[in-house]
Amino acid sequence: MAHGLLDIDIVTREVEKDEELQGIIEILKEDPDGKANYQWKAGNLFYKGRLVLSRKSTLIPSLLHTFHDSVLGGHSGFLRTYKRMNGEIHWMGMKNDVKKYVEQCEICQRNKTEALTPAGLLQPLPIPNLILEDWTMDFIEGLPKAGGYDSIMVVVDRLSKMAHFIILKHPFSAKQVAEKFVEEIISKHGIPNSIVTDRDKVFLSHFWKELFTAMGTSLKRSTAFHPQTDGQTERVNRCLETYLRCFCNEQPTKWHRCIPWAELWYNTTFHASAKTTPFQIVYGRPPPPLRFEGKSDDGTK
Q1: Is pTM, for the whole model, over 0.70?
Q2: What is the pLDDT of residue 291?
Q3: Measured between alpha carbons, how far is 48 from 201 in angstroms, rounded to an integer?
Q4: Measured torsion, CA atoms of residues 25, 31, 37, 42, in degrees rounded to the nearest 10
Q5: For residues 198 and 161, what is the distance between their CA atoms, to the nearest angstrom?
Q6: pLDDT, position 215
Q7: What pLDDT does residue 114 have?
Q8: DSSP labels, 44-61
Q9: What is the reported pLDDT for 2?
Q10: How many domains does one find in the chain?
């Protein structure tokens, strides 16, 4: 998201003109614990550690645009947009403002379709014990040619929901997929304990053979392949396809440029089932916040 999105000087001036916030500040100056969840420090007001803006701030429209419409906002739904904003800033009535903004987004209305539950029963799989050991793998194919690419391999950690989006050229072989898996997954996370996919057994047999060839070993490993799906990767596929429609509909031959941003967006987005983001689960800390513009301690910008 854009550096310099939030000018602290403007925030300060607007808070000074807000009678309601000034009342809170006066209470805190008399008693630092006088207003629950609020803090007054370094000349700024905070609510639960988040910078407070006036509800009439002139910065709100650009904030809503950036947190929802940018490549990191991802044109997410209300909850995910609100959670991303609520982790960094606060103003009275923010939840309603975010809800209204998302509901009125024309790009979302044009490009989002109602998610339908796939037909048939999905066989539940045991919940993994550790993150980054058990993965699902699927492919989005038949995309418009973009930089020579027309397919995406979607690989998702079943526990943390961390996802990697890997672009491919069709037709791709088991060897090419194995090489990409080594480059993008194994190099970062190690050899998987299991892989869930609906690819046929012949493809999987060749895939695993090529994987060990790339590793330079003939040792066998008891990695389990599940030729089925638990529905997780299909959900991620839908998220990714919607993201690409929102950002690439007018330039369908440039969708490949959005993939790194799509991956970052997905992994830093709030997931209701985990009550946090994949980034937080894997790295043990929240995603990096916006870098707000304002005066530094020495008075310079």
Answers
A1: yes
A2: 54
A3: 52
A4: 60
A5: 18
A6: 74
A7: 66
A8: EEEETTEEE--TT-TTHH
A9: 34
A10: 2
Q: Are residues 181 and 227 in the same domain?
A: yes
Domain range spanning residue 91? Answer: 6-112
Instruction: Specify the residue for token string 């903004």.
Output: 101
Q: How far apart are CA 237 and CA 273, in angstroms?
A: 17
What is the reported pLDDT for 224?
57
Ranges in the chain, pLDDT < 50: 1-4, 119-121, 220, 294-301
Phi, psi of 30 (to 5 degrees): -80, -40
259 near 167, Cβ under 8 Å? Answer: yes
Q: Are residues 268 and 155 in the same domain?
A: yes
> Do residues 45 and 82 lie in contact, with contact meaning Cβ atoms separated by under 8 Å?
no
For residues 143 and 264, state if they share a domain.
Answer: yes
What's the rounded Cα separation, in Å, for the pair 279 and 286?
7
pLDDT (0 to 100) of residue 6: 79
- DSSP single-letter state for residue 264: H
Residue 279, pLDDT score: 98
HSE-CB at 152 with a 13 A cutoff on CA atoms is: 26
Q: Are 134 and 192 in contact (CB under 8 A)?
A: yes
Contact of 136 with 156, CB cutoff 8 Å: yes
Other Cβ atoms less than 10 A from the Cβ of 16: the count is 12
